[in-house]
Each structure stands twice: as C-alpha cells, then as structure tokens.
Design a protein that fits this description.
By secondary structure, the protein is mainly α. 73% of the residues lie in helices and 0% in strands. The chain is built from two helices and no strands. Helix 1 crosses helix 2. It is elongated and about 60 Å long.
C-alpha cells in the first residue's frame, strides 16, 4: 500500500533544489561555501526583483494629493 505524498509544490521544489545543491557540493567545505553563496545570491536577486516591481507599480499609480 502506497501512502500519498502530501508535500506542497513549494516543499517539493525546495527539496529538489536542496538535493541538487548537495550533489554539487559533495560535502566539502568549498561546496558548503558555494551553496551558501548561491542561496545568498538568490535572495539578493529576489529582493532586487521585488524592488523593481514595486517601483514600476508606483510609477503607474496616479499621484495622490494629501493636502
């Protein structure tokens, strides 16, 4: 009897990425540094992308008069 896999799509994606990074690193200290750098770079990219989207939304909104 097979039980259902109740992981969300995001959990499966995170697990796949983690497995791929583990395979790249090979357990060495250099690999762990590389893995940390990839994660930090990804977070920086997400932050920059979010800032761009916010900036574009603000440009499209009409100016508000608070007086």
């Amino acid at each position: 009897m097979r039980l259902f896999n109740r992981k969300s799509e995001l959990e499966r994606l995170a697990e796949t990425v983690n497995d791929s990074l583990d395979a790249l690193s090979g357990g060495s200290k250099k690999g762990k540094i590389m893995k940390t750098g990839l994660i930090a770079g990804g977070l920086a990219g997400l932050t920059a992308g979010s800032a761009v989207i916010s900036s574009l939304r603000r440009r499209r909104e009409p100016a508000r008069d608070y007086s």
